[in-house]
Every structure is written in C-alpha cells, then in structure tokens.
Design a protein that fits this description.
The chain is an alpha/beta fold. Helices cover 43% and strands 15% of the residues. It has 15 helices and eleven strands. Strands 4-3-2-1-5-6-7 form a seven-stranded parallel β-sheet, sandwiched between helices. β5, α5 and β6 form a beta-alpha-beta unit. The protein starts with a strand and ends with a helix.
Length: 390
C-alpha cells in the first residue's frame, strides 16, 4: 500500500478540522504539513496527534512558539511560508481550505509543482479562473472540487459514460442553495440582522464568512463562477435553485433529457472524503439518509429581489476579465465591515454592486493584475461605505 503525503492549508478551520477527522481512520495518508493563521492552540493539538513535518502560521512570534514546542518540525510563517509549503515536491495531495483570495498564491505554487489539489475555497477560481486552469493544464495538475455542490456535479459526471468532463453531454447544471437563515424574513427585517445571526447556517457547519455569504447568496454566485471554470460551462448553462433541505447537493441536466443528482445528508465529511479518496470510494460510518422515514424535498426559484447577488455574479461572468475578482474582493471587504458592525446586512450586496459599477474590466494577464484590482476593490469598498456614513 503506497502512502500519500498530504498537506492541509487551513487545518484549524471548519474544512480542515473535518478533513483531519476523515484522516484519523486513513492509514494510507500521511499528514505531511498543516497551516493556520492564528488558532495556535488548536494547531498544536493537531500537531501532537498527526506529527506533521512542516507547519506554517501567520506571524513570526507564533512560529517561534510552535517551533519551541515542536523542535523536530519545520515551522515557517506568513504568505511566503505558505507559498513555499504549497510548492513542496514531497506533497502528493494538497487540501486548500484557506479563506478568501489569500488562497490563490499557494494554489499557484502547488499547481506549478504538478500537485493534485483538493480545492475547498472557491475564491482563487473566481478571481483568476483563466490563469488557474491554464496552469493546471500546463503542469498536468489535477483539481478536485471539495465544495459540496461542485463535488456533486463532479460525482454526477463520473457516471455520464462519456468521460468526466465531456462538456458536449451537458445541457446545464443546477446548483442547489438552502436559501440561508433569512429566506422567509421580510426585506425590512434584513436591515436588523446581526453578524451572529448571519453566521449561523441552518443546515451546514461552516466558518463565519462563508455562512454570511450563504445568507446573502453571494456564496452561490461565487459557486456559479467557479463551476464555469471547473466544468468549462457558459454562464447560461448554470442555474441556481433554492432547496431548503440541502439533501440534493446539485444536479446535472444532460442533452438527452436525463437529470442526474447527487444526494446525501448535509455533511461536509462526505465531499472531503471523496476528494481524498478519488477515484476510489472508501467505506465510512457517517450518518446516511433514512429511507424508512418519510421526508420531503422542496425546490423553489430564487427570489430576484431578495437575492440580487446571483445576477451580480452572472454579470461578472459575462463581463469577464478582472470583474469577477472585483466582485469577490468587494464582497470580502463588505462582509468584514458587516462583521465589525460598520455595514448593515442588507447593504452588503448593494455595496458590492456600487463598487463593480466603478470598475472597467481589464484583461486577466497575470497574477499581478489580480493583486492590483483586489487591492483597488478593497479601497473602493471602504471609501464607498465611509462616504455614506456606514
């Protein structure tokens, strides 16, 4: 049995901790490296259990603390340390679960090494999908989706019989969304939503930022953009449907009229385990659907007045170039301001739209352009909110 060396970027977050839970029962995988920004106590617990050879943390002081506690481990820090770790040639599989566009540089480093990447953060493909996919092709690197929706599509495509990415077989894909915790609240009530409320997803256990994005449906708009790159689809081939039960994780409509769906309980360990085992499926003891008990599956078209983020995401795809990067960056800053109680919940998406209206898309020539427009969108979002007294 060959042992695969694995690195987990963002090991103390929701995806990272669940991945380690999956790996506790996998003797064919060595946890070679871990990283986190600031959850040092939890990181050290993980190190004591899994004995990684390399670790990266956010700051130099934390690196010194960890190095002193684990002298036999190579400990680095900061963005440069994360890029260096991701490009380590000893890594066979890298799980990228870094929050936001900060995950782009290490993803690039891994792809340049030809490493297989299980991608759990969608922002790198949103901001620089054209560049990322070109790198993957150039270096013969494999990208495996971990998001439950994209994993569902990926799994459905394994069964088309025409090859996993036979685009000509696909009529359209349908991404499912729970609708978040405020699907039935009035538009007036949304102005009073607190960060604590928006961070509590009704179906999934996720980090605060992605939970807030799920409440605005920005997360689904980002997933639309990510899906267009992962599966080589046009914007008109991607739809979103509200599915409150979160049992059907997404669907693929094929040209012959067939509709494929991947189903399961809302448990991120399932898509994580599939990505870590692909192309095999390994048995587990996670809870499954109880077919002896009646349950309902409901589907609704999203309300365009409530979920304006979906159209913004589609427009960013249509305009192309650097517009998706601006859409993503403006949202990251708007969510940060909301979490600091400096921006009302119901102004997050309208703020993002205002910043997008200020931007003329540029060709996506290289990563430097992505960095520049990301920084611009951050400044423009803060300035817009400041001028309006938020």
């Amino acid at each position: 049995m060959s042992i695969r060396r694995m690195a987990i970027l963002g090991s103390t977050g929701s995806i990272g901790t669940q991945a380690l839970e999956v790996l506790r029962h996998r003797r064919d995988v060595e946890v070679y490296a871990l990283s986190c920004v600031s959850s040092i106590a939890l990181l050290q617990e993980q190190m004591a259990e899994f004995h990684p050879k390399r670790v990266v943390v956010g700051e130099v002081a934390a690196a010194q603390e960890v190095q002193q506690a684990f002298p036999g481990c190579q400990v680095d820090y900061g963005a440069a340390g994360l890029r260096d770790l991701a490009g380590d040639s000893h890594i066979d599989l890298l799980l990228s679960a870094v929050v936001g566009v900060a995950g782009l540089p290490p993803l690039v480093a891994a792809l340049q090494q030809g490493t297989t990447v299980a991608l759990a953060n969608k922002e790198p493909l949103v901001a620089a999908g054209e560049l990322v996919m070109a790198l993957a092709k150039e270096h013969n690197a494999t990208l495996l989706p971990v998001d439950s929706e994209h994993s569902a599509i990926f799994q459905c495509l394994q069964g088309t019989g025409a090859g996993s990415f036979e685009v000509s077989q696909i009529q359209e894909i349908i991404l499912t969304a729970s609708g978040g915790p405020f699907r039935e609240r009035s538009l007036e009530e949304l102005a009073l939503v607190t960060p604590e409320e928006a961070s509590r997803h009704p179906r999934w256990q996720m980090g605060a930022k992605i939970s807030i994005d799920s409440a605005t449906l920005v997360n689904k708009a980002l997933e639309m953009i990510e899906a267009s790159w992962l599966f080589s689809l046009k914007p008109e081939q991607i739809r979103v449907v509200i599915h409150p039960e979160s049992i059907v994780h997404s669907l693929v409509a094929l040209r012959d009229g067939s509709l494929l769906a991947q189903m399961g309980l809302p448990d991120m360990r399932l898509p994580i385990a599939y990505a870590l085992s692909w192309p095999k499926r390994l048995p587990n003891d996670y809870p499954t659907l109880d077919w002896h008990t009646a349950f309902a599956l409901n589907f609704y078209p999203p309300d365009p007045l409530r979920f304006t983020a979906l159209e913004l995401g589609r427009q960013s795809m249509l305009r192309g170039g650097t517009m998706p990067a601006v859409f993503n960056a403006a949202n990251e800053t708007a969510v940060e301001l909301f979490r600091r109680r400096l921006l009302p919940f119901n102004r997050i998406v309208s703020t993002v739209e205002a910043v997008m209206l200020q931007h003329t898309p540029l060709p996506l020539k290289d990563l430097a352009v992505v960095r520049e427009v990301t920084a611009w969108a951050d400044r423009a979002t803060r300035q817009f909110c400041h001028e309006r007294g938020f």
